[in-house]
Amino acid sequence: MSTDDLINVVLVLAPGFVALKIFQHFGTQRKRSEWEWTVWSIIVGAVIALTVAALRVDLFTNDVIAELGGGLTFGTSGVVERFAVATLFGSVLAIAWRGIGSRAIPALSGLTRQLTNSAWDHVLDEAAAQRFGLEVVIDAGDAPGDVRFYGSLGTFAHERDEAEPWLYVQCVRTWDPGKKGYADMPNTDGVLIHRDQIKWMRVTRQGTPAGCV
């Protein structure tokens, strides 16, 4: 491989890698193998290179096909444009992905179920968006009985990001069998619970506990 070939490979890989890194950091946050990074960097980098080539085409000449055909090999020209497009591309994907998850973008919210196919993500996204109350019963381990919490969903790990399935219940109260009701937990901001600990969970429309912001 000549030096020029190596430069062209780097100039395809690098913008693609930058775009994916932005998307990964601000959007999906999904872990990827080195093989996945390489393959997707090539694919995204090639798309970016051809996009820049298309943007550089003078439509009033007969060089349209030649310019597009050389989109992957026009050397160091268009480097700034490639990284600019990579930054924009990665940012737009990250915003769209977050919008799908948080339902902040109504036009994209309908894609959530099709893209994730996860009851965990779908139900908890809805609970967070609507600020529903959350009742969680967990296994107490060696202690007799179960432990029951009620509060507001602070945050949770998405299955679509292949994250460890933790959820954080804030403004939390715990069940008091003696009073047959929920009692405050002094000096406690919230409880971090792993999905494997959960026996059952209920999302309630009565909302978050009083005083929870």
Q: What would the keywords be for this entry?
A:
213 residues, alpha+beta, SH3 type barrels, 7 helices
Low-confidence stretches: none
Shape: elongated
Tell me what portion of residues adopts beta-strand conformation. 15-25%
Please give the number of β-strands: 6
Total helical elements: 7
* End-to-end Cα distance: 61 Å
The biggest sheet, with number of strands, parallel, antiparallel or mixed sense and barrel status, is: 6 strands, antiparallel
Mean pLDDT: 76
Helix content: 40-55%
Order of helices and strands: HHHHHHHEEEEEE
Radius of gyration: 25 Å
Content-based structural category:
alpha+beta
- Please, how many domains? 2
Topology overview:
Elements: H1 3-28, H2 34-56, H3 64-69, H4 79-102, H5 106-109, H6 112-116, H7 119-130, E1 133-139, E2 146-156, E3 166-176, E4 181-184, E5 190-194, E6 198-204
Antiparallel strand pairs: 1-2, 1-6, 2-3, 3-4, 3-5
Characterise this structure.
The protein is of the alpha+beta class. The protein is 47% helix and 21% strand. The protein contains seven helices and six strands, in the order H-H-H-H-H-H-H-E-E-E-E-E-E. Helix 1 crosses helix 2, helix 1 runs parallel beside helix 4 and helix 2 packs across helix 4. The longest helix is centred in the first third of the chain and has 26 residues. The N and C termini lie far apart (61 Å). The model has no long low-confidence stretch (mean pLDDT 76).
